[in-house]
Amino acid sequence: MKQTLPGTCEPYLLRDGEGERYLVAGQLATVLARPEDTAGLLEAAIVSGRRNSVFPLHAHRSGHEAIIVLDGLVELRLGSSVHALRPGDYASIPPGIPHGYEMKGPYSRLLAWTVNGSASRLLAALGDPVGSETSGPADPAALSVERRALGQSAADVEFLDDAAGASPAPAIPAPPADVAAYVLTAGDGERMLAGDQLFTFLSHQGNTGGAFITLSTVGPRGGPIPRHFHAQHTETFFCLSGRMTMWNGDEEVTLHPGDFLHVPAGTVHAYQLDAPLTRFVGLLAPGLFEPFFRTLCDPCEDDLFPVVPRPVRFDRVMQKINELDLKLVGPPRHG
Ligand code: FE
Q1: Handedness of CA 228, 41, 72, 19 (dihedral sign)
Q2: C-alpha of residue 228 to centroid of ligand 1, in Å
């Protein structure tokens, strides 16, 4: 398995800090997935910055963006609202919605996915490429008029005047039914339980127009899930905390926080959680695998996995297996 951006759609692993790196207005942007690496299905990048680092107000014509804060404090402007986002907080930003941010902590970091957009071309146009000798962000700098123009000609972006201003707005407890901009606080979302693993929908098919789903998964140390592959959708895994073993094709790897794994359609894979509490987040594109989680899981009010595992409803999955984009190649896990 490649451990670099492959340039063709295949499985690959990036360790924390690896990827294509740019300094953008002093922020370190590390591209984890470009269209050429994912058959055009998704892009991903990590952006880190020092206090007062700004990404100015802009909107995307076609890209739907989803971000999760990893470190620090990010003041996100989203439409006419302002949200103070801390680690684990999530925002969904459909096309056309004005957005931008200012990093308010000493060191802030976020993971941004983009579907149907051109985020990696934008970062390349706005930034200067840097090598592995640059391990962190530089002093904040303004994005010049020339850079903004380069970005606008390279990507589906328009930089906007911030004349209207914005006011604080609350996060919502669960994703809305239809396409809309929203923010979820860490732990919120639509929660479902299978065995001892808690799955939380951060975005579902309804509010991405079928473009993608995003899920956060948390659980204790456990056994492996069944080896399987998907014929139609790509899955990505980003480890947030703890430690997990993943099988991707023929290879076994251990993911630590900050590691990213790309599992395109057709790749046999499985995972196992190895630490007392492991949390990972993933974007799956296109958005068509939501029914699997609704079949496997039961709704969950609690915001952490239970002390005593509940049933894993693989029996229900097996009844519907022909309707789900799931091909099993190993024995099911029994919880
Ligand atoms: Fe899978």
Answers
A1: positive
A2: 6
How many angstroms separate the alpha carbon of residue 270 from the centre of ligand 1?
Answer: 7
Give me ligand 1 centre to Cα 152, in Å: 36
For residue 269, the CA-to-ligand 1 centroid distance in Å is: 6
pLDDT in tens, 128-154: 999 988 889 999 999 999 999 999 999
If you search the block for the tokens 């127009």, which residue do you land on?
209
SS3 319: helix
Cβ count within 10 A of residue 313: 17
Q: What is the pTM of this model?
A: 0.96
Distance 236 CA to ligand 1 centre (A): 9
Q: How far is the CA of 177 from the centre of ligand 1 (A)?
A: 24
In angstroms, what is the span from residue 172 Cα to ligand 1's centroid? 28
| pLDDT of res. 333 | 47
Q: pLDDT tens for residues 262-297? A: 999 999 999 999 999 999 999 999 999 999 999 999
